[in-house]
Sequence to fold (92 residues):
Amino acid sequence: MNKETFNQELKKLNIELTPKQETNLEKYYNLLVETNQTTNLTRITNKKEVYLKHFYDSLTITKVITSSTFKSKNNRYRIRRRLSRISTKNNL
Fold:
């Protein structure tokens, strides 16, 4: 799956990435491939496959998450805080 197809498929899930998010995915891909050279993290390192099998598959969970998950301000806060920690820790 190339980036254009990736973004088109995300739109079908009502997900639109910001330019920063797209850049972060690219950084993550590069980090994954680089780290995978010394540590066996995954056999999937082809860019098109990573976008399909790692990124896209991971984002499809949004179809399952109900809006009630995000209704509570406390839940939204915890989710944002966790994502922020992950981004900060990995320089994303």
User: Anything to note?
Assistant: The chain has five helices and no strands. The radius of gyration is 15 Å.
